[in-house]
């Protein structure tokens, strides 16, 4: 391709408005290059909608290839509500019109942009730029978490967005109020790219038709790599940017396996994320004349040869795949490591992950999970798709969305920060204005935040820049960000808001006060002010060097005396609970339901910084210890015993005393002590007074440093005494030879507890058996 540059009229050179002609020219240009173009109509909303109709006429596009994303009704075209824009995932349109006058968000923009096909047009209807930046709408209302109001929400994200619209190549900008074309968006891509067509491998296992359905050589290469799934002991990692066809390749592979009669489990963060996999699977089976019309539904397909491709939620996929032939994980980067690790029980598995896009961060997948995959018994094959499927390389709409939404944000290059230690880094506050003024700094900070969480979305960028309750802290080494923490201010809620929460109302952005008030029935919990650590991340090349703890220590020193507490909530794992415990955060709650995506129970932890913070912490720590014994025997009966151990060991980290300190002794009657001693040192039975054993187990597990028990003994306390699992199940799980040996081990575990916690009655009773 040759380049003629971009014609960008401005000022006195602005052109008189002719929407149909502009649309026709940009449409021809898009079709010639197989790219897309963006047309922005700024001004009155009704005038913008009229202009969008003119675009459809000028571009000469059939009505059924057009979608309007708007809250307005009454169109002859397909219409999608902005908050339902995810319906466009996995679909393509020639023209998509996004009405940004109402219910606009960064997420909606990201989802909509990906639905425009090569040769198509994305049309954006906005208020006049300056008015759009200054206005406050429903998204700003969502950012104004109590006690803040929309007046406290800033306009940085939209200001930056407008700036990119004014200077990015391939974007036409029309002022509807003056009837002028400020930028005509003319653009000619000057970079040549590989247009080689896919070929069918001579030696292949999958059907020829599958390769013939591939649209690029990259996709055919991925399909060939996925042939490894036909044999157990293989893992295939497929990485790609959005729109490269990885899900289609996965669907062709699943269909090919089903054509052989194989059982294939497919999982993804949600059913909609896996839709393209099933579309391609069904199409291939129909083309091969192997589709079983009796298939259960669109996410449970069968072949006439007995094969099956079915969707299973992430929390159930590991167990289901262990009995299947293969597992396909789509959008793997949007799932937590615990679940990804469970998938390694499948005979063979494919991890398909988006490198850049709001579905998840491919780099996060690589950093957190890849070493576990490499250490597994699977032989790993890597394949990457670079060639776009829906549009040609160099597409200006793609580069604009990457830039505007920071989909390609990355932390610093590893080589630049390998020498960073807690002794040579600088603690910094990164204000939104500083981030806006330094694009490189913002990309590094946001890039690390993306790695901190398995689900980061474009709205998070808007929150970072505009939400009044958020603030950012970082450690830098030679001006490069090596560790970052995003903090959310919570509390300071008035009586009416607290009463609303107590009565079941939800309050945005105040997670800890919300849980304490609505679930744990503490109406005063919203009075103290605290900062919740929403996300914390350290560059992977300097992890395990103490930088995360150093950052938390600096945050504590900064806010000590200014707020009442620091807090955190996260999917509970033993490692994370231990990390926060080491930084003096104490457990005050475990959720009683699992997160639908991560499959983990959530832990809430507090670090008090003032008398009011200590009061809040201590009463919730006390309530937690009071109820946890009963909850572990009921709603949390399936909680991992190591999670329970770590959560209980983290109770009571309060410098002013509280539950879990040495002064707190288990309350047992003289009779209960005799029962416990009889079951540990003598011939007594645990079942005579299980409540006494439970209180003693909790006393130990909340202060494990007082008595040395082995890991297996502590797991035995959790599984049998607290979670009341059957003896046979406990013996089998903990590798005892028999239930009798397991019973004896429980008695042995209680002997040192009797020695440590028992008083005169207990010790006198012990003497009878010694």
From TrEMBL:
Gene Ontology CC: one annotated term: cytoplasm
List of residues binding ATP: 219, 390
Positions of acetyl-CoA binding: 536-538, 575
InterPro entries for the chain: Acyl_CoA_acyltransferase (IPR016181), GNAT_dom (IPR000182), P-loop_NTPase (IPR027417), TcmA/NAT10_helicase (IPR007807), TmcA/NAT10/Kre33 (IPR032672), TmcA/NAT10_N (IPR013562), tRNA_acetyltr_TmcA (IPR024914), tRNA_Cytidine_AcTrnsfr (IPR053477)
Principal EC category: transferase
Record's keyword terms, sorted: Acyltransferase, ATP-binding, Cytoplasm, Nucleotide-binding, RNA-binding, Transferase, tRNA processing, tRNA-binding
Domain TmcA/NAT10 N-terminal, first and last residues per copy: 28-175
Chief place of localization: cytoplasm
Family matches, as SUPFAM superfamilies: Acyl-CoA N-acyltransferases (Nat), P-loop containing nucleoside triphosphate hydrolases
Enzyme Commission number(s): 2.3.1.193
Catalytic activity: a cytidine in mRNA + acetyl-CoA + ATP + H2O = an N(4)-acetylcytidine in mRNA + ADP + phosphate + CoA + H(+); a cytidine in tRNA + acetyl-CoA + ATP + H2O = an N(4)-acetylcytidine in tRNA + ADP + phosphate + CoA + H(+); cytidine(34) in elongator tRNA(Met) + acetyl-CoA + ATP + H2O = N(4)-acetylcytidine(34) in elongator tRNA(Met) + ADP + phosphate + CoA + H(+); a cytidine in RNA + acetyl-CoA + ATP + H2O = an N(4)-acetylcytidine in RNA + ADP + phosphate + CoA + H(+)
N-acetyltransferase domain mapped to chain residues: 447-561
TcmA/NAT10 helicase domain: residues covered: 237-408
Function: Catalyzes the formation of N(4)-acetylcytidine (ac(4)C) at the wobble position of tRNA(Met), by using acetyl-CoA as an acetyl donor and ATP (or GTP).
Family in the record: Belongs to the TmcA family.
Designated name of the protein: tRNA(Met) cytidine acetyltransferase TmcA
Species of provenance: Haloferax profundi
Gene this chain is encoded by: tmcA
């Amino acid at each position: 391709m040759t380049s003629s540059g971009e014609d960008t009229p401005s000022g006195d050179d602005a052109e008189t408005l002719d929407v149909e002609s502009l649309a026709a020219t940009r449409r021809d240009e898009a079709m010639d290059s197989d790219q897309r173009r963006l047309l922005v109509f700024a001004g009155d909303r009704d005038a913008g909608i009229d202009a969008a109709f003119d675009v459809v006429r000028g571009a000469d596009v059939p009505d059924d290839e057009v979608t309007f994303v708007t809250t307005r009704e009454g169109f002859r075209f397909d219409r999608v509500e902005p908050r339902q824009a995810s319906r466009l995932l996995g679909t393509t349109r020639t023209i998509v019109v996004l009405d940004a006058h109402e219910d606009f968000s960064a997420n909606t923009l990201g989802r909509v942009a990906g639905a425009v096909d090569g040769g198509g047009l994305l049309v954006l209807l906005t208020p006049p730029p300056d008015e759009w930046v200054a206005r406050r709408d429903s998204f700003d209302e969502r950012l104004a978490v109590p006690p803040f109001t929309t007046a406290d929400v800033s306009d940085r994200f939209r200001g930056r967005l407008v700036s990119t619209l004014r200077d990015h190549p391939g974007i036409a900008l029309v002022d509807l109020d003056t009837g002028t074309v400020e930028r005509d968006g003319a653009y000619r891509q000057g970079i040549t790219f590989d247009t080689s067509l896919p070929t069918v491998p001579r030696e292949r296992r999958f059907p020829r038709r599958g390769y013939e359905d591939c649209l690029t050589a990259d996709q055919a290469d991925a399909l060939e790599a996925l042939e490894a799934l036909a044999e157990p002991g293989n893992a295939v990692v497929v990485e790609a940017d959005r729109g490269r066809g990885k899900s289609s390749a996965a669907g062709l592979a699943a269909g090919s396996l089903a054509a052989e009669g194989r059982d294939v489990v497919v999982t993804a963060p949600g059913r909609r994320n896996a839709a393209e996999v099933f579309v391609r699977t069904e199409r291939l089976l129909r083309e091969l004349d192997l589709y079983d019309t009796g298939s259960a539904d669109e996410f449970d397909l069968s072949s006439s040869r007995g094969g099956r491709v079915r969707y299973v939620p992430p929390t159930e996929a590991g167990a289901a795949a262990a009995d299947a032939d293969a597992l396909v994980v789509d959008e793997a980067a949007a799932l937590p490591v615990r679940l990804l690790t469970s998938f390694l029980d499948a005979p063979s598995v494919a991890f398909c992950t988006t490198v850049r896009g709001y579905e998840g961060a491919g780099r996060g997948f690589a950093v957190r999970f890849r070493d576990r995959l490499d250490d597994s018994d699977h032989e790993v094959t890597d394949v990457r798709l670079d060639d776009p499927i829906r549009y040609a390389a160099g597409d200006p709409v793609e580069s604009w969305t990457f830039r505007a939404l920071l989909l390609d944000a990355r932390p610093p290059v590893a080589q630049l920060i390998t020498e960073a230690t807690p002794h040579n880094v600088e603690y910094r506050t990164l204000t939104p204005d500083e981030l806006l003024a330094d694009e490189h700094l913002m990309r590094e900070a946001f890039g690390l935040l993306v790695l901190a969480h398995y689900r980061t979305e474009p709205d998070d960028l808007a929150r970072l820049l505009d939400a009044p309750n958020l603030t950012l802290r970082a450690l830098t080494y030679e001006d490069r960000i090596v560790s970052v923490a995003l903090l959310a201010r919570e509390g300071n809620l008035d009586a009416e808001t607290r009463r609303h929460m107590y009565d079941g109302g939800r309050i945005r952005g105040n997670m800890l006060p919300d849980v304490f008030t609505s679930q744990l029935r503490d109406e005063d919990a919203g009075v103290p002010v605290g900062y919740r650590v929403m996300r914390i991340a350290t560059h992977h090349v300097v992890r395990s060097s103490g930088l995360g703890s150093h950052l938390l220590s600096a945050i504590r020193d900064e806010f000590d005396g200014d707020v009442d507490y620091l807090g955190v909530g996260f999917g509970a794992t033993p490692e994370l609970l231990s990390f926060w415990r080491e930084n003096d955060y104490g457990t005050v709650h475990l959720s009683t339901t699992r997160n639908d995506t991560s499959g983990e129970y959530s832990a809430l932890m507090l670090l008090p910084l003032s008398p009011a913070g200590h009061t809040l912490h201590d009463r919730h720590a006390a309530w937690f210890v009071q109820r946890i014994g009963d909850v572990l025997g009921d709603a949390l009966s399936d909680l991992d015993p190591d999670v329970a151990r770590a959560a209980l060991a983290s109770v009571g980290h309060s410098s002013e005393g509280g539950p879990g300190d040495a002064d707190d002794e288990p309350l047992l009657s003289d009779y209960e002590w005799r029962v416990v001693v009889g079951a540990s040192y003598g011939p007594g039975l645990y079942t005579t007074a299980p409540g006494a054993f439970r209180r003693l187990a909790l006393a130990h597990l909340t202060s494990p440093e007082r008595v040395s028990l082995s890991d297996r003994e502590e797991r035995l306390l959790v599984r049998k005494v607290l979670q009341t699992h059957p003896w046979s199940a406990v013996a089998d799980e903990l590798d005892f030879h028999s239930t009798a040996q397991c019973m004896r081990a429980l008695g042995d575990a209680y002997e040192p507890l009797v020695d440590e916690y028992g008083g005169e009655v207990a010790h006198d009773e012990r003497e009878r058996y010694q």
